[in-house]
Amino acid sequence: MTPTSAPRISKVPFIIGDVLLVASAAWMALSGAALGPWQYAVVAATVALGAWLAAWPFVLEFGAATKLAESSALASVTEKLQDLDKVSAHIARAVAELQQVQQSATQTVTSSQHIAEQMTTEARNFGELLSKMNDTEKNHLRLEVDKLRRSEGDWLGITVRILDHVHALHQAGVRSGQPTVIEQLTHFQHACRETARRIGIMPVVPEPGIPFDAKAHQVLDGAPLTDSARIGDVLAPGYTFQGQVIRLPVVALQQAQPGPKDKEKPEARLLFGKTPA
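The chain above was modelled as a monomer; its predicted structure follows.
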């Protein structure tokens, strides 16, 4: 609000009136005639009236300035009250917005808790599903491994039987005494053993005449054993698969040589429980 000044009164008439009254009082006092009580009273009244007349415009201006100041103060108070009303309105709007924000926050927290519970449930269900799938996969892999092991044992047994038949055929050729047959069967046996070596099967053929070792050799059932027993002949070679022994070589001792029938069809035992034909 733009401040306004109090209206100013022209003091010239009051000053003129004051001068006239004071001059009249001075003329009456200096006229030379004897003044009675009532003349002194008139002079005093005239001087007092002149003084009042000179001071009156200042009194009016002061009153106007006072009213103007009161009006300005009242206007300022009114403006402040209006400002307080605006502030109250802003506070009310802020409180309403705060309540809305609080409600939104409460709804958000509730939704978050619901989502967290759903995520926990889904995670638990997914974990259970993964566990079931893992168990199923483990069982399936275990079955496959068992099948592979059985298949490995089967084809190892078949391969060993074939190599035993090749060895028996080579021994029959040696006993025939025909050099051509012996050479051909020897090459055939080497080729078969080389093929088996490529898949990890290695033959173990001990030298005849070396001492018998029960940990490295085996004999046919019923063959007598002595401390000085020596190997007389190899009935069936032993075999290892990828460095592991699958059968010890079957030998005949010098003290008890096996017959021809036993040499042609050795009944050697495989370490995994199968007997080659």
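Residues 148-264 form a domain with the Nucleotide Exchange Factor Grpe; Chain A, domain 2 fold (CATH 2.30.22.10).
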